[in-house]
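Hi R.,

Quick one: here's the DUF2917 domain-containing protein sequence you asked about.
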Amino acid sequence: MQELRDYELDQAGTPVSWRARPGQRIVARDGNIWLTVEGQRGDIWLAPGQSFDLPEGAWVWISADAPGARFTVAQQSAPLSWRGLLALLRPRPRPDPIRLPEPSAGWWPARHLSR
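And here's the predicted structure, written out as tokens:
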């Protein structure tokens, strides 16, 4: 399963940036998308329909050559590890219930009882 988020760049040449998460991919939808990726030797241009897998943890700057360019960020779900599965199945400790004091003659003010 994957999560898809669509974006539209409203200004040409004004980049937005973020740090890539594991399993992210950029897919150009409308217009040419310009990527600068930390650790890559040169910039990357994507035409509509082309995609690029982002390296995990790298800073990414994305822009376009014209306003209105659209792209999708596809996020692949991380596979569930055995350790993660066992953590989900492990019973969690429940907090102690709140204990109220026992009612006594002096516990509730008399002014509340005489109406």
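The radius of gyration is 27 Å.

Cheers,
M.
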